[in-house]
Amino acid sequence: xxxxxxxxxDGKDVRExxxxxxxxxILETGSDLSPRAGERVYDLEGCYLLPGIIxxxxxxxxxxxxxxxxxxxxxxxxxxxxxxVTTVIDYADFLPDRPLPESIAARQKVFSTxxxxxHFHLVLNNNFQRDRLxxxxxxxxxxxxxxxxxxxxxxxxxxxxxxxxPDILNTCKEIGLLVTVHAxxxxxxxxxxxxxxxxxxxxxxxxxxHRPAASEVxxxxxxxxxVEETGCPLYIVHMSTAGAxxxxxxARARGLPLLGETAPHYLLLEEKLFEHPGAARYIMTPxxxxxxxxxxxxxxxxxxEIDVVATDHCAFTAERKMEAENVLxxxxxxxxxxTLLPLIYTYGVGRKRFSLPRLIQxxxxxxxxxxxxxxxxxxxEEGSDADLVVYDPGPRWYLQDEDLHSRAGYSPFSxxxxxxxxxxxxxxxxxxxxxxxxxxxDSGGRLITGRRIQx
Length: 455
Ligand code: URP
Ligand code: ZN
Ligand code: ZN
Fold this sequence. Notes:
13 helices; eight-stranded parallel β-sheet; alpha/beta; nine-stranded mixed β-sheet; about 30% helix; 19 strands; binds N-(aminocarbonyl)-beta-alanine
C-alpha cells in the first residue's frame, strides 16, 4: 500500500512525502513514489501520517478490590484502535507460587484476544520477597523491560515493604530493568483518610484532600533519594501535581536518571469536577488537581522535563462507579485510551504549547525508546512496523459519550472541543479502522518484546 501526498510526522520533523508499506513493515519513504502494479494508493490529501500511538499505561481486565475493570483486552484494544493507538503497555501481576515467566505467560493468555500489539510491565506486589530477586534477571530473556512498584495501596496488596526498595533497585540497576512507580506517600494518605473518616467527610469532593498533592510530592522526593542511593533509573507514572513536576525537573537537572509520565486528565480536568453530580465517574487515583498543576505539567512536557503522556485507562461503567455511597467505595479509574491522541493534539499542538514532533515524542517515540520497543515501534523509518495513523487536523467537533467504543459508556472528557480526527489506523500493515469503521480482524495483537538500551 502506498500513502501519497501527506505530511509525514515523526519525533524529528514534519515533511511532505509518500510512504510505502509492504509485508507489515515500512518499506520506504520518499517524495514522489510511483504505485506498483495492483498496489492500493491512499491519497492523504494533506493529512498527517503518524507512527502508531503507544499508550504505555493501561489496565485492561484489571483485577483489584474484588472487581475486574470493564474493558477487557479485546474491548480496550478496539477502543484504542479507534483512537490511533496501536500498542499498549499493560501490567502483569507477580504470581508468588509460580516461576517468574509464568506471571508474564498468564497475562499473555488474557491478552490473546487483544487487537492491538502489547507489552507488559511486571507489577511487584507485596507477595514479592527478597528470595525471588535473582529471578528478575529472567525478564530480559522474556523481553520484558520494566517493573511497576507502588508506594501505596496496601489495601489491594500492591504496597511494597520499604526495606525491599534498595535491594530491588540495586538489582534492577545491575540488570538494566527500568522501575516504574506509582508515587503517593502512603502514611500521609492514611492519616488524612482516617481523620476525614472520623469526621464523616467521605464525599467525592474530599478525594483530593484524602490524597493530597503533598502526598505525591513527598513520595517523589523519597524516590529521588532512592535514585541517589542506588543509581537505578526510575520512571514516575501518572504525575498529577506541579510539585512533583518541579521535584523531578530539579533532580534531572542534577543529572539523576528520572523519567516522568503524566495523563490527559491531569492536563485537562480540574478537581472541581468532584463537586458535580455524577462525580464518582471522575474518580481516579491520584485525584484531579488544580489549574496551576495543569499548567506546570504542560510546561514540563514542552520543556522536555516530562517524557510521556499515557492514559492509565481503567474503565468501569458509570453505573458501577456510581454504586458507591462514598469516595472510599468508588472503583478508581477512568477510560482514556481512545481520546489520548485527539486531546493532546488539540490542547498541546492546537494550543501551540508544543510542536507536532514533540507530540510524537511523548505519545509514541519516547515510550518506545524507554520501554525498549524502538525502532520497531514509535518510528516512521524504513524497517519499522507499519503501525500508522492518518490524522486529519481539519474537523472541529465536540466529544460525546456516543462517539467512543469503551465499555465504560462515557468519557470524562465529553463536552470538550476537539480539533482533528483519526481517519485510519493501521497495525503492522493491516488497516484496522477506516473512516470510523472497524474493517480489520478483531484480534491479532502480539506481545512485542523489547530490549532496553541503557542511557
Ligand atoms: O485510579 C486508578 N488510577 N486506577 C488504576 C490503578 C492505578 O492506580 O494506576
Ligand atoms: Zn497508579
Ligand atoms: Zn495505573
